[in-house]
Every structure is written in structure tokens, then in C-alpha cells.
Design a protein that fits this description.
About 25% of the residues lie in helices and about 30% in strands. By secondary structure, it is an alpha+beta fold. The protein has one domain (about 1-90): Alpha-Beta Plaits. A 4-stranded antiparallel beta sheet has the order 2-3-1-4, with helices on one face. The protein is globular and about 45 Å long. The mean pLDDT is about 90.
């Protein structure tokens, strides 16, 4: 199994949900109002008066065979609106029980 963490501008919220649905990924956890800034040239997303944008994070644990389509869809979304910000991180996951 894979753990997939998607960090994205709140503007992508509905589209990320649509991608999960399209990829038949039911289980996930979402955090709203997440603060941060891009590691290269991204603007801060601090949810403040000076930096009003904010991020969200969705994490899902999926079977390996769903990973490539999910990554493809997320990459397509990021390419369409690079300035909004979307990053995806993947690592191995094991079920504890």
C-alpha cells in the first residue's frame, strides 16, 4: 500500500475531491487551513491579512495499482494552475492491524 499526501491551495479543494472520486478512492483524511510556503518560489500561504491564501492537506492510503492514475490526475491539475500550488508525496504504508 501507499500513503499519498496531497498539499494544495484551498482553490483546488473541489478538484482534488473530484480526482479522488474519479480514481475510486474512498478513504481519506483532510486538514483545512494549513499554513506554509513553497520550497522553491511559492508565495506564503499563512491565512493572514498580508498572506491571505491558505493550504489544505489530504492524505489517503491506497493500493499500489491506484497510484499511477492518481498521480497522473494530480499532475494534470497542477500543470493547469501552477501558481496555485499543489505537491504530492508518496511513501510505503503498512496496516497496523
Amino acid at each position: 500500500m501507499k500513503a499519498v499526501m496531497i498539499v494544495y491551495n484551498q482553490a483546488h479543494s473541489a478538484e482534488v475531491q473530484e480526482i479522488l472520486d474519479k480514481c475510486n478512492i474512498r478513504g481519506f483524511t483532510k486538514w483545512e487551513d494549513v499554513q506554509g510556503r513553497g520550497s522553491k518560489d511559492g508565495e506564503p500561504h499563512y491565512s493572514t491579512h498580508a498572506w491571505p491564501s491558505k493550504n489544505m492537506v489530504t492524505i489517503t492510503i491506497i493500493e499500489d495499482n491506484k497510484l499511477s492514475e492518481l498521480i497522473k490526475q494530480l499532475k494534470f491539475l497542477d500543470d493547469r494552475a501552477e501558481k496555485q500550488g499543489l505537491r504530492t508525496f508518496v511513501w510505503e504504508a503498512e496496516q497496523a492491524w
